[in-house]
Amino acid sequence: MTGSSFAVGLHTASVLDAPISLGRLVFLVAFGVLVVATIVIRFEHARAVYGSDDATREPKTNCPSCGARILAESDVCEYCEESLTDNESGYGWIDD
Fold first, then answer.
1. Domain spans in the chain, listed from the N-terminal domain onward
2. Phi, psi torsion values for 48, nearest 5 degrees
3. What is the dihedral of CA 49, 54, 60, 63, to 10 degrees?
4. Of 82, 55, 54, 86, which Cα lies nearest the Cα of 68?
5. Which three-class secondary structure state does DSSP give residue 61?
6. What is the Cα–Cα distance from 75 to 70, expressed in whole angstroms?
7. Transmembrane region positions (predicted)?
8. When you count CB atoms within 10 A of the terminal residue's CB, does the N or C end of the chain come out lower?
9. Residues 49-78: pLDDT tens digits?
10. Mean pLDDT, to the nearest integer, of 40-47?
11. Which residues, 6+ apart, have CB-to-CB distance to 89 below 8 Å?
């Protein structure tokens, strides 16, 4: 058996040999963009809620409404826009 006849017998069709329609290409690109956008949005939300190791090292706390990490001296949550001051919030404060 010669090497050339063996190689000819193993020839298989490549996936790249088949033409791809423009509609299928547009669908695949749009689907890929949608997947990447979803991943980025979920990562940014997780980073906003759970915080990150940023270089500012300013004191932070969690918003009592949405749980996002915010600066401790903030008066309003930058994510849910709830007031964080004692006199404006309705978090069970009892006036005597």
1. 22-55, 59-86
2. -70, -40
3. -20
4. 82
5. strand
6. 10
7. 20-41
8. C
9. 776 665 567 888 888 889 888 888 888 888
10. 91
11. 64, 82, 83
Structure tokens at 47: 């980073």
- Residue ranges of alpha helices (H) inside 1-96 are 3-9, 22-50
Token representation of residue 24: 């299928």
Q: What are phi and psi of 71, to 5 degrees?
A: -65, 140
Which residue is listed with tokens 């088949």?
Answer: 18
Give the C-alpha separation, 78 to 80, whole Å. Answer: 6
Are the C-beta atoms of 77 and 62 separated by less than 8 Å?
no
DSSP state of 17: G
Q: Is the pTM of this model over 0.85?
A: no
Between CA 93 and CA 90 the distance in angstroms is 7
Please tell me the distance from the alpha carbon of residue 44 to that of residue 64, in angstroms, as a whole number: 20
